[in-house]
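Thread title: Can someone regenerate the structure for this chain?

I was given the following input by a collaborator and told the matching C-alpha cells would be attached. They weren't. Posting the sequence so someone can regenerate them.
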Amino acid sequence: MTDRGFLFEIPEQASGEQRAIAEIAGLVDALRVSVERLAEAHVALGERVDAIDDDTRWAPARHCWRDLDRDAARELWAWLIAWTQWLVDRYGLAQDLGACWPAHPALVEELTALAVSWHHAYSRKADPDAPVRWHEALHRARHRWQGWDTTRCRHGQHTPRSTDTVWSPPWPRDAERAVTDDVNARQRAAPAPRAGGTT
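Best answer:
Regenerated them for you:
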C-alpha cells in the first residue's frame, strides 16, 4: 500500500472551481488510502479466521489414499471407519452399503470424498446451501455404490443380498483385516531429520 497524500499544490491564483477540484482530488486520494488499509485488514482477518476454523481438527490433513504412508493411512482409516459407521446409522444405509466396504477401493475413495465434503459442508466456512448440495451428492453416490460393488457384497461377507437392516458380525474383524492389509502394503514414513541436518 502507498501511504501518500495528495501532492498537487494549488496555485494562489487558482479559481474557485480549480480549488474545489483539488479538494475533491484530495478526498478521493484519502479514500483510496482508507480502502487499501481496509483491504489489508480484510486479508489479515481472513487469515486469522482460517487459522481458527482449521479443518485439520476434524480430518487428517491428507486424505489422498494413493500418497499415504502407513501411519497416515492408519489415521485416515480410523477416521473414515468412525464417520462411515455414523453415516450408515444416521441415514439407515446398511442395505445400500455392504459392511465389507473397506475391501472395495472404489467405495473407500467415494466414502472418503463424502466424509471430507460433509465436514466442509457443515463448517463455518461453507455456503448456506452446502449441506443441501452434500445430500444431493450422497443421493448420487448411493446409486454408484451398486456399480462399484461388483461382487454384490452385503452385510460383511461376499454373499447375496439379504433383508437384514444392520451390519451383522463379523464386520468389525473383516474391516480391521482390510485395514491391516492396506497399511502393511504401504511404505513406512521416512524418519524426520535431526537438528543440524543429520539423520
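The chain has two domains: 12-52, 58-184.
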